[in-house]
Write a structure and sequence with these properties.
The chain is mostly beta strands and about 300 residues long. It has one helix and 26 strands. The relative contact order is 0.15.
Amino acid sequence: MYPPPQILETEVFATVPAHLRLDRPSWMQRHHLRAVDCFLEGPGFDRAGNLYMTELAHGRILRLSPAGVWAVAAEYDGRPNGLRIRADGAIFVSDRTRGIVRLHPDSGRIETILPELPGARLHGPNDLVIARNGDIYFTDQGETGLTNPVGRLVRLTAAGKAEVLLDTVPSPNGLALTADENAVLLAVTRANAIWHVPLLGPERMPGRVGTFIQMSGGPGGGPDGILCDAEDNLVVAHARMGAVWVFSRLGEPLFRLRSCKGVMTTNVAFGGADRRQLFITESASGTILTARLPTPGREPGWTG
């Protein structure tokens, strides 16, 4: 259908050190059938160049300084998954048990922003993205899938109002806003697809939702974290495939980045002085991979 994408190789940027790996049971053992000493997700750079990432297995948020020093930014009773940093530096996390929370990095305090929906419990938030006006879009995934397609796409407005935009999604995961913010691109993991969700009218409610990219492979996985670059190309971390894909704004495959470490490639972030360096969490090994792309990420402060 399309020419093969160009293959790009990755290399190891950093690995969680032994003293931050926890030899204790975690809730993730029922999914992985083994002890999980750390499980990286949700990478994001602050304006000082610190790389924040969530550690889903044991309720931690880790920080890697530009000098290569690891630290625990927060440890609490939760399951932090997606992380985004707003233009003003505020750090927000989608937590599978706590809802939408805010990290105060100076103190490590976790502030709950949205613990539940009006009149309904959350299934378990997975990832989030922040619009220019301060609205937070997040996915409420929980244990949803093809046989239980009740996952949600939710908007938490800057004024604090929670609005359910979709509630029939089989495992909603990563999400990104297009450059004009007139659509949400939504990773639907169990359907192995990226959906296109147009936002119409002054109410910005979904129009006709369609499949933007139909993917394949990654047994038991699918598209996970996603983001758009400066030209609206879509970067997709393909969990259990050991790959990150770059698609054009029309959905054409441009690049395939091959993991040099493992197959659990879960999430991505742009960084570096020119924002052409892509950073990838390989969750199972607790490793951050990197590769250089020709097109930079969006400017700092634009969190789509």
